[in-house]
Structures are given as C-alpha cells and as structure tokens.
Amino acid sequence: MRTWKAPHSTETAGPVLVSRLGRGLDRVTFPKLIRAVAATHKFLAQDAAALSPDVIARSPTPFAT
C-alpha cells in the first residue's frame, strides 16, 4: 500500500520515498539515507561513503534475467 499526503502526492502518483510530511526527499536527505542503509549491509558497508543516487541509477539491476 502506498502512503501519500496531499498536495505533494496522490494515491496513484508522486514520489515513492517521502518525508514524514509527505514531501519527496530532497537532494541532501536522499544520499544520506542511501549511505546510512548501505553502511548496515555486509556487502555495501565498505563503499557506503561513495554511494549516491546517480551511482545507483547507473548500476545494473539485480533482477535482470
């Protein structure tokens, strides 16, 4: 189920990751979140400081067949 809050998003459209107020994450918060999550993962912890949304967007999907 998608969580949403007007006017920043609707039940069917808007950012997937949102703040507690329903706004999309800003360009400072999003990389911090990515790095914090990666730091807890055994395979990503060593590279967590260098991760950014752009690096993740350019990486191959693990779901490709």
Structural class call reads: mainly alpha
Q: Gyration radius, to the nearest Å?
A: 14 Å
Distance between the terminal alpha carbons, to the nearest Å?
27 Å
Please tally the β strands and state the result: 0
Largest sheet: none
What number is the mean pLDDT? 83
- The amount of beta strand, in percent, is under 5%
Helical segment count = 2
Order of helices and strands: HH
Unreliable spans are: none
Plain-language structure description:
The structure is a single chain. By secondary structure, the chain is mainly α. The chain is built from 2 helices and no strands.
Task: Provide a short characterization of the protein structure.
The chain is an all-alpha fold and 65 residues long. The protein has helices at residues 29-39, 53-58. It contains two helices and no strands.
Please describe the topology of this protein.
Blueprint: H1 29-39, H2 53-58
Kindly list the characteristics that best describe this protein:
65 residues; mainly alpha; 2 helices; 0% strand
